[in-house]
Task: inverse folding
């Protein structure tokens, strides 16, 4: 009888622990180090590549930990009828993404904090990052 009770307690504890582990989502932390606002590639490599991958195809080292796969940034123009969506990208960087599975950071707030809320440098960062994304497009 005591043996059965012991096994039942162990099983219950194990089931509770496993259930909690499955419910727990891994938190992805991307270190925000200093980058040049004039260097879109450096910003992309530091901030975007962990999720979107070096080539922009969505296979970064952190992508497997996300709820939904990151957007393939290499075919943005193709997905928009051959037109590179500058205004959409600026909007995403400034205001984030409105989607329940979206886990993209609010880069506008991050860029603003990095530059003591200097809107000129924040806008320079956004512009140069978008310009670099243009170079990743599949031709």
Result:
């Amino acid at each position: 009888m005591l043996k059965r009770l012991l096994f039942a307690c162990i099983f219950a504890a194990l089931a509770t622990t496993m259930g909690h582990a499955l419910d727990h989502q891994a938190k992805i932390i991307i270190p925000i180090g200093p980058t040049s606002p004039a260097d879109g590639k450096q910003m992309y490599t530091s901030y975007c590549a962990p999720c979107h991958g070096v080539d922009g195809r969505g296979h970064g080292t952190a992508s497997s930990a996300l709820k939904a796969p990151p957007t393939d940034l290499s075919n943005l123009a193709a997905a928009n009828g051959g037109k590179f969506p500058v205004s959409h990208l600026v909007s995403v960087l400034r205001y984030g993404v409105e989607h329940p599975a979206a886990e993209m950071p609010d880069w506008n707030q991050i860029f603003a904090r990095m530059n003591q809320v200097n809107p000129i440098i924040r806008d320079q960062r956004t512009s140069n990052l978008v310009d670099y994304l243009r170079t990743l497009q599949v031709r």
User: Anything to note?
Assistant: The chain has a mean pLDDT of 78. DSSP finds six helices and no strands in the chain. Residues 2-23 form the longest helix (22 residues). Helices lie at 2-23, 40-52, 76-79, 86-95, 107-114, 119-135.
